[in-house]
Amino acid sequence: MDIETLFGLKGKTALITGGATGIGRMAAEAMVRAGARVLLASRKGEACEAVAAELNGLGASGSAEGFAGDVASEEGVDALVAAVKARTDTLDILMNNAGVTWGAPLGQFPFAAWEKINSVNVAGVFDLTQKLLPMLTASASVDDPSRIINVGSVMGEREMGDGAYSYAASKAAVMHLTKILGKELAGHAVTVNALAPGPFVSRMTAFATGSEALREKVGEDVPLRRVGREEDIAGCVLFLAGRGGAYVTGGIIPVSGGINVMSGPNIFESAM
């Protein structure tokens, strides 16, 4: 079996939420280059259209389409599902990437930050997934399952609040839902896996990755000594979406440069 067979996506149709920027944009380019037809949706439809135009200009074997889609409410999810169905009869890959965050110090963290974050990061992910399941199962087979890829965070794995308490908790919920759905959907030939990224350049992390100086500074605190790159996301996504990942479900890929295994110092370090 050759590499193109293992990681190629020719003939596949994918939906990526939050696909105009950051990790969603990185995943979209990887899928288009691998031959997929990629639907990009976010609250800013014009941004998705612009990114789709950029991707279609690459000369790759896949294609992209951008449009507006909001998973912050039940009505928004229903509208997004309708928009997808209007564009395609089949769906092979769903990447739940759309997410929001909220930062405030402990003692000042508002109640409203919980509803807003969880409506997008948890409820929106779950509701969109269950409403697109009929499309995903229709194109699935035992030999070539349909794929769901959720985007969690290393902050959902490790004890990191960093002022983003509802965000961190929501990403822990996403990764737990990934395991639950991985179990429940295996018998329907649908795999469910998640990425748990560390610091990557995105609009959400612009405060910490918006310049080369900031990226270098943040990278110093990462065990592998850098922030994430486009190819780090591309490699993980093409594995999970391609033939090479067909036997993996319920998994969490720690694409965080080692932050996921950071701990305190060796308890005997001072004696060595």
Query: How many structural domains can be distinguished in the coordinates?
Result: 1
Tally the beta strands.
Answer: 7
Tell me the radius of gyration. 18 Å
The largest sheet has its strands arranged as: 3-2-1-4-5-6-7
N/C terminus separation = 49 Å
The amount of helix comes to 40-55%
Mean pLDDT: 94
Our estimate of the beta-strand percent is 5-15%
CATH superfamily: NAD(P)-binding Rossmann-like Domain
Largest β-sheet summary:
7 strands, parallel
Q: Globular, elongated, flat, extended or rod-shaped: what is the shape?
A: globular
CATH architecture: 3-Layer(aba) Sandwich
Per the CATH scheme, the topology name is Rossmann fold
| Secondary-structure-derived class | alpha/beta
Uncertain stretches of 5 or more adjacent residues: none
Order of helices and strands: HEHEHEHEHEHEHHHE
Give the C-level CATH assignment. Alpha Beta
Count of runs of 4 or more consecutive helical residues? 9
Please specify the SSE layout and strand pairing.
Layout: H1 3-7, E1 13-17, H2 22-33, E2 37-42, H3 45-56, E3 63-68, H4 74-87, E4 93-96, H5 112-138, E5 146-151, H6 165-185, E6 190-195, H7 206-209, H8 212-219, H9 230-241, E7 252-253
Parallel strand pairs: 1-2, 1-4, 2-3, 4-5, 5-6, 6-7
Helix pairs in contact: 2-9, 4-5, 5-6
